[in-house]
Specification:
Blueprint lengths: L1 H17 L4 H8 L3 H10 L1 H28 L1 E4 L1 E2 L2 E2 L1 E3 L6 E3 L1 E4 L2 H11 L1 H4 L2 H14 L10 H16 L21
Antiparallel strand pairs: 1-6, 2-3, 4-5
Helix pairs in contact: 1-2, 1-4, 3-4, 4-5
C-alpha cells in the first residue's frame, strides 16, 4: 500500500516537472515534502534519472512557451480611459472587444542570449561563461586564449614531434606557452 502511494507521488511529481513546474511546486502537487523528494532522488538512481529527464522536458516546455510569446505574440485586450475599446466585426456587424498582438522583446533577447551567448550576452556574462567553460574543459585560468597563443603552442608541439627529446613522455614542458581562458 505504501509503495503504491510512493509510486503515485513520484509519478505526479515527475508529471509536474515535465510541465515546467519548480521542484517545490511539483512536490507540493504530489503531496510530499521537498526534503523527502531530494532523499528519494539521492537513494534511487532510476528516480534521479527520471527526475533529470522530466526537469529537462519542463525546461524545454518553458522555452517553447517563451519563444511563442516572443515570436508569435500574445493577444491583449486594449482599453481607453479604463473602458474596453470596442470595434465592429466586419463579417457579423457585431461589436466586440479590440485586441492587439503583443510581442516580448525581453523574452526574445533571453532566448538569443542562451542560444548564442558569444553574440548576445553582455561582456560580464560572457566572461563568466568563458570561465565556466574553461573550468569544465579542465583549463586553468590566468591568461587569454588568442590565435597567437594557439599557433605558438602548436609550433612548439610540431617541433617536438619532428625530433622528440629523450624525456618526451616525462611530463609538461616549460617551453610550451599556456593557452588559457579568462575574462
Amino acid at each position: 500500500m505504501a509503495r503504491r502511494k510512493t509510486d503515485t507521488a513520484r509519478t505526479r511529481f515527475l508529471e509536474m516537472l515535465e510541465t515546467g513546474s519548480s521542484v517545490a511546486i511539483a512536490a507540493r502537487a504530489a503531496g510530499v515534502g521537498l526534503r523527502t523528494m531530494y532523499n528519494w532522488r539521492s537513494q534511487d538512481a532510476e528516480f534521479a534519472a527520471r527526475w533529470s529527464e522530466s526537469y529537462q522536458m519542463g525546461t524545454d516546455a518553458l522555452e517553447d512557451e517563451a519563444r511563442r510569446r516572443a515570436v508569435d505574440g500574445v493577444p491583449r485586450q486594449k482599453f481607453w480611459n479604463g473602458q474596453p475599446i470596442m470595434i465592429v466585426d466586419e463579417e457579423t456587424g457585431e461589436r466586440r472587444p479590440y485586441f492587439e498582438i503583443e510581442y516580448s522583446d525581453n523574452l526574445l533577447m533571453f532566448i538569443l542570449k542562451r542560444r548564442d551567448p558569444e553574440s548576445f550576452c553582455d561582456q560580464a556574462r560572457l566572461a563568466a561563461l568563458k570561465r565556466k567553460w574553461a573550468k569544465e574543459d579542465g583549463l586553468p585560468t590566468g591568461t587569454t586564449i588568442t590565435a597567437e597563443s594557439v599557433v605558438a603552442a602548436l609550433d612548439v608541439l610540431r617541433s617536438r614531434l619532428a625530433a622528440p627529446p629523450a624525456n618526451f613522455l616525462e611530463g609538461p614542458r616549460a617551453d610550451v606557452p599556456p593557452a588559457v581562458v579568462t575574462s
